[in-house]
Amino acid sequence: MASPAQQLLGLRSLNGRVEAFGEDVARTRAFSNKFSMGRDLVSLDGSFEWDEVTHSRSLAPVVGRDSPFPLRQELQTINRRSSVADIKESKVISAERLYENREAGTLRPNAKAVIEMELRDLVNRIGATYEYMCAHTAQGTLTVSAANIPGTSMPFTITYSPNTFTAAASWATAGTGILSSEVPSLKIDYEQTCGLSPAQAIIGSTVEGYFLSNTQVTEYLHRAVGEKILTTAGKLRGPMFDGLAIGGLTWEITEGGYVPDGGSFTRYLAETDRGILLPADSELDQVLGEAKAHGYVPAQAMGPAESAADLVRPAPQAGWYAYATLAGPDHPTGVRIYVGYRGLPVLLRPAAVNVFETVS
Question: What is the rounded CA–CA span in Å between residue 18 and residue 242?
Answer without folding.
Answer: 30
